[in-house]
Every structure is written in structure tokens, then in C-alpha cells.
Amino acid sequence: MADTSATQDTPTPDGVEPGAIGRFFREEAPKEIRRAIEEGSKKDILSPSYPYDTTIDGESYGKQLEALQIELVRMHEWVRRSGARVVVLFEGRDAAGKGSTIKRFAANLNPRTARVVALGKPSDVEAGEWYFQRYIRHLPTAGEIAFFDRSWYNRAVVEHVFGFCTSRQRAHFFAQAPQFESMLVEDGIHLIKIWLTVGRAEQLRRFLAREDDPLKHWKLSPIDVEGLSRWDAYSAAIREMFEATHNPVTPWTVVRSDDKKRARLQAIRHVLRALPYDGRDEAAIGESDPALCGGPEIMPDENV
């Protein structure tokens, strides 16, 4: 595990107190969370409900990833030739692996027609617009794929948990989001919504590793630090989000990401199977693991 007693002498992002993650680990984290991190090795899975005890073998992962990335290139060529429009939303708790998963999706795709959309805090102008307006600007045209690293679902979870929106604004969002997404689908956009879920101990272990690595300090934010003590509030908000926005037209796909490598493989498989591209290689895509990739019903209940 990361050295939780280390003093951070290198710069941290604005508003992030050096050593704050380690201090939370030592002073505030539940005992069972601390115990799981202290007793687990680097390859151990910390969540007791995860169906595997250790992370996937590196050689097996590499072979499967290469085959799936070749399929992604084939799928992307279909998008370009057919004029299809594809939107893939990646949501999940902090440190669930959204960025690293998107990186594996986009690694070998033409960046001119496969874009990653990662929007920051709304400007004053954007804050005065219809909530969905700034996201609409980034929807793909014919022959493009847009990967959203977080999306309009900020309002459903993060903004709600931290009080950045009112209850009325959130209720309005829940009323409009299914209609908005149905309009996208009716207009021909292939919309895929992926929620990466990670256990509490694994999330904290990843934050400790970020704090201990100067090259990853940029990934930390004050929201990350403060959010560690709001696990239950996040859980409640996530459940409410699924209840309001999971439907047959625009369903959520949950991918368990306690093992990031397995999660990447499952997410890529799901997207490939969701799109009707030509010349697919079924053997290369392989079968999804229903214990790791499914609907909201596979969300674990425990807090470890």
C-alpha cells in the first residue's frame, strides 16, 4: 500500500492540503477500511463481494486488450464510413478508473473523429444557460465518437452531494434527462451510459497512491478529499440516479472496477457489442462477465 505517513514536499493542487488523504486514512477512515488496505497486497482485491480474489494476470490482460483494441479500430472505421454518431458516457465515483478506461478506448483511434470530452466547472455564462446546453455543443456529428469523461450526470450525484445545486434543480434534471436522452436516441445517436463502481477500501487505496506519487497529484482535488467522508451520501445519490434515469431506451451499464484492468476489458466489450458495426470478430470480443458488467442490480451493497 502507499506510505500513508509520508510528508508531501512537492506541490499539490490548489485547495488540497498536503497529506490530507493519509490523515483521513489514519484518523477518520472506518476500521474495516483501514484493515483491508493494511492487510491487502498490491494484487489483492479488497472488496469482499468482488468475484475474484486477485487482479487479472498481466499477460492475459495484454492479449485480450490488444484484440479488443483492434476491434475498436474496426468499429471506428464503420463509424466513419457509415456516418454514425456515437456517445459513450463514463461516470462513477472518484478514482473508479474513468480516465484510464477512456485512455484504452481512444489509444489507437483517430483523434480527429474520436474525441474525449472532459468539461471543467461551468463559466458564468454557462451557469446561466439551460443545464444541458454546454454538453450539446460537444455531441458528435456524422462519423464521430465522443467519449464523455463525466457528463450531465454531475448534477445527479456530485452537485447534489456537495450542495452545488438545489433540490428543485436536481428534480428538474431527473424530469428532463430521460427526455433529453430519448431525443438523442430518436435522432439516431448511439448513446451508451457506463457507470464504473469501486469499493470504498479500493477507492481510498487509489487516493493514497495518488498522494504518494508527485506525478499524479494533479488528479487530486478538494472535492476528492472532502468526498471521502461522504461515502453514504454518494451511495444514496447514486441509487436515486439509477431509479430516475435507468430505462429500456437509455439504460445504465454498471462495470465493477475494483480491478481496473478487468473493468477496461468489460467496458470495451460492452461498447463493441452495443454497436452494429460490420465485420465484427466475435472470438476477439469474447464474452462479457455478468458478475462484472450488467445493470444497476450488480451494484454491491457493502461499504468495503
Walk me through the structure:
It is a single chain. Strands 2-3-1-4-5-6 form a six-stranded mixed beta sheet, sandwiched between helices. Residues 1-10 have low confidence and may be disordered. Helix content is 45%, strand content 11%. α2 crosses α9. The chain has one domain (57-200, 214-298): 3-Layer(aba) Sandwich (Rossmann fold), CATH 3.40.50.300. The chain has helices spanning 20-27, 31-39, 58-82, 98-106, 124-127, 133-136, 158-161, 167-186, 200-212, 222-227, 231-245, 260-274, 282-285; strands at residues 85-92, 114-117, 144-149, 189-197, 252-256, 293-294. It is globular. The protein is built from 13 helices and six strands. It is α/β, with parallel strands linked by helices and 304 residues long.
Count of separate DSSP helical elements? 13
Low-confidence stretches: 1-10
Output the CATH topology. Answer: Rossmann fold
SSE string: HHHEHEHHEHHEHHHEHHE
Which CATH architecture?
A: 3-Layer(aba) Sandwich
Helical proportion, percent range: 40-55%
Instruction: Note the main sheet.
Output: 6 strands, mixed
Shape: globular
Mean of pLDDT: 94
How many beta-strand elements?
Answer: 6
CATH superfamily: P-loop containing nucleotide triphosphate hydrolases
- State the end-to-end CA separation: 16 Å
